[in-house]
Amino acid sequence: MISVIGGTGPQGLGIAKRLAIAGEPVIVGSRKEDKALKIVKETKEELKDYDIADMTGMANEDAAKAGDILILTVPLVAQTATLKTIKPFVEGKILIDATAPLEAAIGGKASCILDVYEGSAAERTAHILAGCDVKVIAAFNNISNSLLLNIPNDIDCDCLMAGDDKEAKAAAKEIINKLPGVRVIDVGKLEKAHLIETITPLLIGLNIKYKSQFGGIRITGIPKLDE
Ligand SMILES: NC(=O)c1ccc[n+]([C@@H]2O[C@H](COP(=O)([O-])OP(=O)(O)OC[C@H]3O[C@@H](n4cnc5c(N)ncnc54)[C@H](OP(=O)(O)O)[C@@H]3O)[C@@H](O)[C@H]2O)c1
User: Fold this and answer.
1) pLDDT over 90 at 33, yes or no
2) What's the 122 CA to ligand 1 centre distance in angstroms?
3) What is the pLDDT of residues 127-143, one digit of tens each?
4) Of 77, 109, 160, 207, which is the most buried if we count CB atoms within 10 A?
5) Mean pLDDT across 168-196
6) Distances 108 to 102, 105, 200, 206 between C-alpha atoms, Å
């Protein structure tokens, strides 16, 4: 079961909708169970013409307890508090972190990166969850909510992914590849996450400069990426 922690925002809900349409049962997590249930009810109504997989809403803690694969989609300012609430339930699981460390978190620009002491937001997540047997992966950082929510259109973007555990990355890749148009690219260990996270403010800046909302990224010229 996949649980999206902080799944009521545009990024998490976009991922949840795409996964449900692709036939993956999904739990939408929130700090407040009522909010999660309300948003899931509205989402099911919105997607009534699709044969979606089971979708339910829960408090983040319950969502973390119920899921095997957790996708974290909260802003950087909420990262520590959210992870502390779910820490008791992450043992033996995979956590995919979508957090982009943007300067907007401290009142600056969303088109600028915020340096994170641990090296990246995903490594910060691994640091906060230290002592737990949880496989942290950075992914989804480069896919904007505009692309995710542009249903039913394909998502014209690669999903760069970093993490230390090969099996966990294989499991994450299998799921993320279900998003139409998305190609998952494993860039290496979690220490590479900062490279992925830096692309997000770049794309945001390009969207602002060229008045778009669908900026994405494709890696070309490396045939083995498609094997
Ligand atoms: N939006 C994008 O296009 C995009 C693209 C790439 C990466 N990302 C990353 O994905 C993450 C989510 O993005 P988003 O735009 O969906 O974020 P968001 O709407 O600001 O927040 C997502 C959810 O996090 C919870 N939350 C918000 N503020 C919180 C706080 N102070 N404390 C605890 N929980 C809080 C809320 O859920 P509840 O109120 O239900 O608890 C909210 O619905 C961010 O880290 C962002 O950098 C976003």
Assistant:
1) yes
2) 15
3) 999 999 999 999 999 99
4) 160
5) 97
6) 8, 7, 15, 17
